[in-house]
Every structure is written in structure tokens, then in C-alpha cells.
Amino acid sequence: MTFSKSQTAAYQLFALALLLWLASIGAALLAAIKWAGTDPLATSLPFHHANSLAGLLANLTVLTGLLGGGLYIAAANGSNEAKNAGALKLAAKVWIALAVITIAAGLLHIGGGWNEIAISPLMSAAALVMLVIFVGLLLAERPDPAAALVIIGVVFAALGLLLDLLPSGDMQLAMMQNVLGQGSINFIGYPLAGIGLTFWLARRYSNVSLEWAQQGAFSCGALAILAGICMIAARLAAVVDSSMVNMVSAAGIVLVPFAYIVTAAHVYRTLIVRNGTATLAGHWVALAALCWLIGAALGAIIAIPSVMLYAAGTQLAHAQISLFGLGILATILGAINQNSAELRGKNMRVTGLMPFWLVAFGGIGAALMQAAAGVAQVFMARVSGFGFLDTEAAIAPLYLLWALCLLVVAIGALAYLAGFWARRPYEHVEIIGGAAGATNA
After folding, report:
1. Are the C-beta atoms of residues 420 and 350 closer than 8 Å to each other?
2. CB within 8 A of 373, min separation 6: which ones?
3. Is the distance from CB of 230 to CB of 256 less than 8 angstroms?
4. Which residues contact 335 (CB under 8 A, 6 or more apart)?
5. Residue 206, helix vs strand vs coil
6. What is the rounded end-to-end Cα distance, in angstroms, of the chain?
7. DSSP codes of every residue in 56-87
8. Rounded CA gap, 436 and 339, in Å?
9. Where are the alpha helices (DSSP H) in 82-165?
10. How far apart are the C-alpha atoms of 355 and 280, rounded to whole Å?
């Protein structure tokens, strides 16, 4: 039995997401090494260039994975074929071409992107248009609540791109737009989409009821939006002096951890009533919940207005984004694992446990080292008044540990990609309409 257009397009997007992920880890590792000691590429590839490239690749990874997840859900809900299969497949091909052109344009300094490598306004506008097209096509599939969260998450990501494209009259307005744009992407859009994928995958690896999964997706999604608003307000408090912003930020001290404790409790429920599915989707979802919990705890600390004034711009603030990014990435890797097993028609792990543990320990370890470096920056540079260069020299060992953890993640990514390629589906293999655990072909 041949694969449907929707299944083929989803698999291609997943494959591209994995390649982009590997490239983003390489760029992040390069950026981390630059702080750890002598850098032979300090002139040819400065830190802000490497860091900007890593950010671009990471965002393309997540967006590509989410679009693949949306197509995967649309195909599964439509008995292996979406209603707008032809249009979705064409949109997927255009997105793949756009991703390649965007990276090439950034590396060749075409389009005047931020820091010479970041996405240019032209490419950002093109990505925004494609996201809107994808959202329209996926909405036409009449998604269930879990799938709708994925779409809403992509909408918030598109909103973040739009805010970055709007012209700003002065420096403060530009900083506000940046906080709102990046916050919409990292603290609302990506977590919402991740929660949607989480509850949709729960029906594949767990015995929870459809009604429970839909209600859980709705309640956790609503809490994630409120928590995201609080986290954005915390960062906005460092830019604008507003009692309203400070009040919303202070509410995040309680609301942010509460939202993700509720989400983690729902994930735990899905894990204790597992069905016979052997894929590692449940493992990756558990990792996502753990990353969100740690990130939420960090967010509660940062939500204290006086703390954010010191933490703004340090690695402590960036560590929270890293944890939330690892959370959404974990849900995408879980969806890829599940999708690959279903296309092969076999109840199997596909990528194995080694990549999972390497990514889990390496990713969380890197974020914790980043947070530790941020704490040192706050106390040495912001509180005690040490100079920037003296502070960075003192915490170089933490940057080295950060780089080593990223190297572990890179090894895990290579192992994941190798398993994904080695167990790629063939068109003569029977396709399962339901969960991979439904058969043991």
C-alpha cells in the first residue's frame, strides 16, 4: 500500500526538522565554545553571528516540526489522508524550499538580517505568509481540541514574527516589540503547540479516554496562555515602568508553576495507564513535561520584578527559553517516533533509548549550566560590580560544561537521526490507521 500525500509531506517535514535540529546544535555548540576560552574563530565568526545562526536554525526546527505534526494529525484523523491533501503537500514543499533559501540568504548576508545572519525581514515575511496558509489549510480539516492547540500555537508564532516585522519609532518601542514578539513565540506559541501534541500523542500510547484528553488539552492550554502572559510581563517589566505590568508579572510567581504542575499531572496520568504501544512517544512527552516544570520554576523566580531587573540580558533569562525550547522539541521528537513506527506498521521504538537519554541529560544539563552562569553574572556583574570581562573569565568553566552538555546532545541527535534513517518506512509496508500498538507486523 502506497503512502498518502499527507503522510509523505509530514514525513518530509519531520526529516527536514531533524536535519535543522542537528545543524542548530552545531551552531549552539560553536557559540558556547566561544565563551569557554581561546577562540580561533573570534574574528571570522564572532559570537553574535554564531548565536544568531543557532537561534534561526532552532526556530526553523520547531516550526518545521510543528507543521509536520499538524500534517501528521490531519492525515491520521482523516484515515491516512487529509481533505486538502494536495494543497498541504504543495505548502510543505514550498516551506522546505523557503527554509533552505532562508538559511542560505542568512549565511551569504543577503537581505540585511539582524546580526548579519538572523532571518531577514523579507524571509520573515515569506515565512509569515506560509504559516498563515498552513493554518488556513489545517483549520479546514476541522481539528479536535488537541490538534487545534497545535494550530493556535503556530498562530502565536506567526504573531511573534509579525511583531518583529513592524517598524519601531524609538529604541524603547523596539525593545518592547522584541519582548512581545519573542514572548509570543517562546512562552505562548511553542508551549501551546507542545501541549496539543502531548495530548494527541497520549491517545496513541495511553489508554486515556478521548473525552479526558480533549478536556485536558483545553484546560492545560488555557493555563499555558495565562502563564505565558505572566512570563512576557516579567520581561516587559525590565523595559517599561508600569504598575500593571509589575502586577501581572507578580501573578506569575504562582500562576506559572501552577500551570505546568497541572500539565505535568496530566502527563503523569497518561503514563500510568500505558497501552501496548512500544514507541518512545511517552518517554519524550515525559521529558517535555519535566523541562516545562523546571522552566516554570525558573520563570516563577524571574517573575519577581526586582529579580528580573538584575536577570534581564543574562544567561539566567536565556536558560528559561532553552528549557521551554527543549520541551517543545521533545514533543516533536515523540511525534516523529510515533509517526515513523505507524508508517512502518510495526510496534517498535524506532530510535531507541540511547538518543533519548543523551538528549535528556545533555539538554537539561546544558540549561542548568546556562542558568548557573546566569546566576554568577547577576551576583558578580550586576550586584557586586565586577567588570564584564572579569565576570566572563571567572565563569568560563561553566561555559565549558555547557559546551560539553551540548556535545552530548549532538551525539544524541546523531544517534536519533541514524535510527530514523535506518528504520525509515518503505512504501510496500502496510500502513496502520491507528496507533502503532494496534498491530505487531
Report:
1. yes
2. 315, 316, 395, 398, 399, 402
3. yes
4. 14, 65, 68, 69, 72, 197, 201, 281
5. strand
6. 14
7. HHHHHHHHHHHHHHHHHHHHHHTTTS-TTHHH
8. 8
9. 85-107, 121-139, 145-165
10. 11
Torsion of CA 291, 292, 296, 297, to 10 degrees: -30
Instruction: Give the single-character DSSP code of 436.
Output: G
Per-residue pLDDT of the chain (441 residues; tens, 9 = 90+): 467 778 888 899 999 999 999 999 988 888 777 665 555 555 555 556 667 788 888 999 999 999 999 888 887 765 566 678 888 888 999 999 988 888 877 676 655 444 444 556 777 788 889 999 999 988 888 888 888 999 999 999 999 888 877 777 778 888 888 899 999 999 999 999 999 999 999 999 999 999 999 999 999 999 999 999 999 999 998 888 888 998 999 999 999 999 999 999 999 999 999 998 889 999 999 999 999 999 999 999 988 877 888 888 888 999 999 999 999 999 999 999 998 888 888 787 888 899 999 999 999 999 999 999 999 988 888 787 788 778 878 888 888 899 999 999 999 999 999 999 988 887 543 333 344 443 333
The residues pairing with 274 across neighbouring beta strands, listed in sequence order, are: 206
343's enclosing H/E stretch is helix 315-344
Distance between CA atoms of residues 399 and 373, nearest Å: 7
Q: Model's pTM, two decimal places?
A: 0.89
Instruction: Check the CA dihedral 33-39-44-47 and report its sign.
Output: positive
Burial class (CB in 10 A: 0-12, 13-18, 19+), 236: buried
Q: Which residue has the cell 492545560?
A: 220
DSSP 292-304: HHHHHHHHHHHTS
Instruction: Give the C-alpha separation, 60 to 406, whole Å.
Output: 19
How much helix, strand and coil, in percent to the nearest 5, is found in the chain? 80, 0, 20
Domain interval for residue 75? 5-438
Q: Which CATH number covers residue 35?
A: 1.20.210.10
- CB atoms inside a 10 Å sphere around CB 279: 26
What residue type is 385 in one-letter code?
A: G
Question: Under a CB-based contact definition with an 8 Å cutoff, are residues 57 and 27 in contact?
Answer: yes
Here the cell at position 124 is 520573515
Max intra-chain CA distance, the chain: 68
> How many domains is the chain partitioned into structurally?
1
Cell numbers standing for residue 209: 479516554
Where would I find the beta strands (DSSP E) of 201-340?
Answer: none
